[in-house]
Amino acid sequence: MAKRTHHQPAPTGAAPRREPITDSAWFWFALFTAVGLAALLATGGRLGKRQAGIENKYQARAGVASGQIQVETSDAGVKTAGTAPRYSTPEAPVIPLWPLEVLLAAIFLGSLAMLLRQRIGQDRPLA
Q1: Which residue(s) pair with 72 in the sheet?
Q2: DSSP code string of 66-81
Q3: Gap between the Cα atoms of 103 and 112, Å rounded
Q4: Torsions phi, psi of 87, nearest 5?
Q5: Which has the higher per-residue pLDDT, 94 or 10?
Q6: What separation in angstroms does the CA of 35 have from each of 30, 42, 102, 109?
Q7: Residue 31 to residues 25, 43, 122: CA-CA distances in angstroms?
Q8: Out of 1-5, 29-33, 57-61, 105-109, least confident range
Q9: If you ran DSSP here, which 8-state letter would residue 85 be given?
Q10: For residue 33, how many other CB atoms are within 10 A of its CB?
Q11: Average model confidence (pLDDT) across the chain
Q12: What is the dihedral of CA 74, 79, 85, 91, to 10 degrees?
């Protein structure tokens, strides 16, 4: 039997079988965070408008409950606010979305790095 050198390919039966990438938990972390980040970035403008509306309702209710906003009722039954605090806008919400974007990006990059490390580690022979 001929002696194998490092230049000759390994016989078909002796080659270690590589696991599918979908068997890795790091793949799923990377995939789901990438989809979440893409969805957040794609809907950022609409989500900002919706969030500003929700924050405005909360600020108005909290202001009325605490007495900061005085509601005046006219003879016709129309209610108006006498004094009103500064409300949030889509450009300047009370709770910004950028920390969520940064967190998703960090999880994505970390899981992608671990996935690559795992996949490249499988290619190296155990010496």
Answers
A1: 80
A2: HTSS-EEE-TTS-EEE
A3: 14
A4: -95, 160
A5: 94
A6: 9, 10, 14, 13
A7: 10, 18, 20
A8: 1-5
A9: P
A10: 20
A11: 82
A12: -130
E strands along the chain, which residues? 71-73, 79-81
pLDDT tens-place string over residues 7-49: 555 555 555 677 888 999 999 999 999 999 999 999 877 888 8
How far from chain centre, in Å, is Cα 108? 9
| Unique residue bearing structure tokens 């970390």 | 110
Nearest to 44 by CA among 99, 109, 90: 90
**How many residues are recorded in the chain?**
127
Number of other residues whose CB lies within 10 A of the CB of residue 108 = 20
Q: What is the pLDDT of residues 106-123, one digit of tens each?
A: 999 999 999 999 988 876
